Amino acid sequence: MATRKTEFLFCLLILGCGILLSGCGGEPAAGTANPYYRQGVSLRQQNEMEKAAESFHKCLRVSPETADAHFQLGDLYENHLNSPVRAMHHYSLAIEGRLEEEENRSIAEESIIHLQQKLLEEWISEHPEIARSATDADELASQNRILTRRNQELKQERDTLVRARQTLLGQTRRLISEIRQKEQRINELEN
């Protein structure tokens, strides 16, 4: 009976050790320790870019907080899979998360700016009429600035002329008043 109990306890001990070694419930590894992340890096080194992207997406399904997987996807979509919008999306998510290498945050920020400029240039080349409109708009804005300055100058001249007119009207009224007073004196002297 003691041997059965010993065997049972031994089996329980082995089972407990197995559970502990397997990670207490089989929780997936987080971050860059995630096997899908490591697989993505390996596939990328083998120049299997689409498969690498699939692995990084699997990593994110298991560990959505893995900012480095978003960074890797941003780089893949930008430089290998020709999808700038997806690249910007993943770079943005990488920036929001906690990247293991702080340098990658700067790279992601610069890449987003570069991709935005690239998309704008492509869009303008596909829509030359918009580019002409933009040039026309720049010219109109320049003319508008010139006309606004000229309008301000003319308002200042008008204000100066209004003040001069008021001054002249005041002087004219005084002169008319003085002339009338002198005419009255003359009339009084003649009478």
Order of helices and strands: HHHHHHH
CATH class annotation of the largest domain: Mainly Alpha
Low-confidence stretches: 9-13, 15-28
Question: Into which percent range does the helicity of residues fall?
Answer: over 70%
Overall average pLDDT = 84
CATH fold node name of the largest domain: Serine Threonine Protein Phosphatase 5, Tetratricopeptide repeat
Report on the architecture of this protein:
The protein is mainly alpha-helical. The protein has 2 domains: 29-126, Serine Threonine Protein Phosphatase 5, Tetratricopeptide repeat (Alpha Horseshoe), CATH 1.25.40.10; 128-191. Helices cover 83% and strands 0% of the residues. It is built from 7 helices and no strands. The chain has helices spanning 2-21, 35-45, 49-62, 67-79, 84-96, 102-126, 128-190. Helix 2 runs antiparallel to helix 3 (49-62), helix 4 (67-79) runs antiparallel to helix 5 (84-96) and helix 5 packs antiparallel against helix 6. The longest helix is centred in the last third of the chain and has 63 residues, at 128-190. The radius of gyration is 41 Å and the shape is rod-shaped. 18% of the residues are buried. Mean pLDDT is 84; it is low at 9-13 and 15-28.
